[in-house]
Amino acid sequence: MVSFADRHIGPTADAQRRMLDALGIGPDVDPEGPLEALMTEAVPSSIFTAAPSESALADSSIPAAASETEALAELRSLAARNTVNRPMIGLGYYGTITPQVIQRNVLENPSWYTAYTPYQPEISQGRLEALINFQTMVADLTGLSTANASMLDESTAVAEGMLLARRASKAKTDVFAVDADALPQTRALLENRADAVGIRLVTVDFAAGEQLPADLFGVFVQYPGASGRVWDPSAVIDAAHLAGGLAVVAADLLALTLLTSPGALGADVAVGTTQRFGVPMGFGGPHAGYMAVRAGLERQLPGRLVGVSVDADGKPAYRLSLQTREQHIRREKATSNICTAQVLLAVMASMYAVYHGPDGLTAIARSVAGKAGLLRSWLVEDGADVVHDAFFDTLQVRVTGRAAEYVEQAHHGYGILLCAADADTVGISVDETTTVDELLQVARVFGGRAERAFAFVGVANALPEGLLRREEFLTHPVFHAHRSETAMMRYLKSLADRDYALDRGMIPLGSCTMKLNAATEMAAITWPEFAGIHPFAPASDVAGYLELIDQLEAWLAEVTGYDAVSLQPNAGSQGELAGLLAIRGYHLANGDEQRTVCLIPSSAHGTNAASAVLAGMKVVVVACDELGNVDLDDLRAKIQVHAEELSALMITYPSTHGVYEHDVVEITSAVHDAGGQVYVDGANLNALLGYARFGDLGGDVSHLNLHKTFAIPHGGGGPGVGPVAAKAHLAPYLPSHPLAQRAEHAGGHVFAGGVVSGAPYGSAGVLPISWAYVRMMGGAGLRRATAAAVLSANYIAARLGEHYPVLYTGENGRVAHECILDLRPLKEATGITVDDVAKRLIDYGFHAPTMSFPVAGTLMVEPTESEDLGEIERFIEAMIQIKAEADAVAAGRWPADDNPLVHAPHTAVSLIAGEWTHAYTREEAAYPVHALITGKYWPPVRRIDQAYGDRNLVCACPPIEAFA
Prior knowledge:
The protein is an alpha/beta fold. Among the domains are: about 5-65, no CATH class; about 115-340, Type I PLP-dependent aspartate aminotransferase-like (Major domain) (Aspartate Aminotransferase, domain 2); about 540-760, 3-Layer(aba) Sandwich (Aspartate Aminotransferase, domain 2), CATH 3.40.640; about 785-950, Aspartate Aminotransferase, domain 1, CATH 3.90.1150.10. The strands form seven sheets. It has a seven-stranded mixed β-sheet with strand order 2-8-7-6-5-3-4, with helices on both faces. Strands 11-12-15-14 form a four-stranded antiparallel β-sheet, covered by helices on one side. The longest helix has about 40 residues, at about 345-380.
């Protein structure tokens, strides 16, 4: 019977045999087989782990591989242990209706969920348009000029807003004033983030008229408040401006269809979440946070920003704007470590707005407010003490000393989840899904009658007249043209057709691990028992989730050699930050306040340095040698200089250069001997799983990218999940959460570190994907996958090495799971650049490998284990043919300024419009290899002018006339 691993791993046994022959590895070189021989050549013997014995497998926490049917049955059993009660907790998470046309055509569509970050914009026009719709939606509703392409969640967006205010304010102070009515998880996260970078938070009850501190660089206002209260914060915003500070407002986008926008109130920055725009709660995520800023702050925005530029024909085209401000370029000078977005969820939220339009969104908001008003009238009529008269969707009722009793009664009596704001106050939040019958049940909890006649209360009765919205929003035609399901389905299809995703072909992006996201892994995320759970639901409602989380934590700890795992970080960057904050907490607990230096190799991922700065550390760069390894002499010298203040070393393993460093144990030992801790970046775990463990090679803490090694889709640039794993001595400093269902984690560990994500378990809604991946692969399958990935990378390196130099290899001439092709000699010989090769690959039907990282002028190729030999050979053929085309330019066959490489990519229109005047033929442009005739992908735009888009910054939907 064919196993799941057989389906997941692309090269068959016969194909692997041919690939190994090409590498000169015969069938009899190793008793365990030729694939093991390759791995013993590649992985240093000092860390190599032999295949586990039968007894070791029996003792493993990871059970033997399950079939797809068995894994789904187990997931059904876990899901059945969750109870989908009606959540009326609020606190930033609400029931919402996902239109089925969006669920089926976006969330469940591999054209959307298998795409990557749009770093090749010519083949990303569909998702870029969806993101510019998102930006326009956010900017319109918040009344601010520019929004980015999404944040990780609301709480982390508030933290980023705080940091933006600090760097943009001219005030010489470290004080930031925080609304007393802020969401509790946001307050907790702000405290953690502020402490690390020396910001002093001062809590102020703005709505009650408390005065601001005399000196501050910014204020944070929750609008409406966590209590549901709606009030006018414009005076507070004005006072902040007078003090030289900036105003950050966290606003509910649905409420903003009825309320005056933050921009109209004078806010500088607006942040929040788009979860209630059709994105299921999923026990906390993933959801698209948002950030928008007033004019003049665009270049201060963290994260990704989509803008409008022009292509080679002068036609409008989308691309990522102002990338020089991002962490991967600025490194230790970066102001944020965010390197991703929540693209898949931002697309869903934007399409919710496209489908409903401004009138539909307003109608939903009026319905929500009307139901909340009806409930208040009943509660007041029955004698309940309702705290606020002005509200949108959330009420609070005073029940002196009895809040837990009322919450319990609603839960067990009616299956309704209310919020105990404190011992004396119960919170009730109404949403799009709330029914009148449920309102009646809530009223009965507070002593109301079983039956009654009613009429909806007008919105104006619950919202202050002076705060009613008078500004137009979502006026662009895109928010008015897709009302029918037919129109919406076709719009989504047209956008997907403009993109290149994994469902079209290989995306060989080095360092990004674009492996298969199997349909069986994806199946459970839309089940109501996983999707419909509030992150603060009581433990009794989420027993299945907690068991799944326990199992996944244990499995991840075992395969990495660590003792404890926190799943809270909702991106790799946040996992890095959590790990470094754990190191910081450990040193502070030991009285080593002076240990603040973080050593980072020059080859490291850009997020490493940025995360270290945000953890309050000073970055010291360690050189790499000519082979791409950490320079041991420079490392020892830096350790000696900073021995007393050494906090940590951050190292990626295998290295960012795509090789297994043979001296890694010596490196980690040197750091430990000086009293430092070792952070091993888990970005390249796909090359190590089953053959070595971070904890065994000297790691104290690591983050793991579940969206890379463990099969969660990249979704066009997000969701990401970045759990942090640590040895026992650091476990107490891993992230905790004030609203977590329990304190204990797998292995009995109790975490007491600060909050790094809005929800206790981060983006828990996609954890069933990685659970299913590990469950169906089993320990042996994970090891097979690693070997297959390393084999494919070495095969590509061997086949292409005679055409393009392979920049780095290990001691035995082998690479890890990726290889770096050096195109600098090609440019010197022919004038053809790495950009030309990347764009020409589009004409061959490929997404380009990673460009100019970690070395400028190179391509970093990672085939992953999922691509079969036929697709790998197609890529090799394309690269060889492109080299021949470049040589033809050098030989004078084509002019340097008129050849198929410098004009790539070629659109269908460019081939048929007007007279063909190029030195090469139409056939050479469009069909450089015969196989393209039956399966050609046509890019929708020609090469995009990147500089034009930065000089002429436009980050909202362009008018229809622009496309005429």
